[in-house]
Structure prediction request, 101 residues.
Amino acid sequence: MSDPKSVIRYLGYRSVANGGRRFDFAVTQHLATPTMITIQAPPAFFLGPDRIAIQEASAICYETLKFRIQNVTDCPPKQFDLTPADVVQHRKMQKSRVGKY
Prediction:
């Protein structure tokens, strides 16, 4: 499990020529210098009936990065792709949070 003092800060997104997006985060762990991590969302995520909005995409990427730091690896790669499983996991978590209020 990661250091509880890890800080993830959303820096913004960049459009990619093919219609996808890159979401940038600064991650500070163990009081070290921040590391920039980019999560790429392919264009397919922004099309069709189950598409995600830009605002939702940034939250999904944030939660995905947080999950990976806490549960998978203390130091995720500096760049990785968002997956359909990440979107499903985020939406399940959102539904369970709504039920708690």
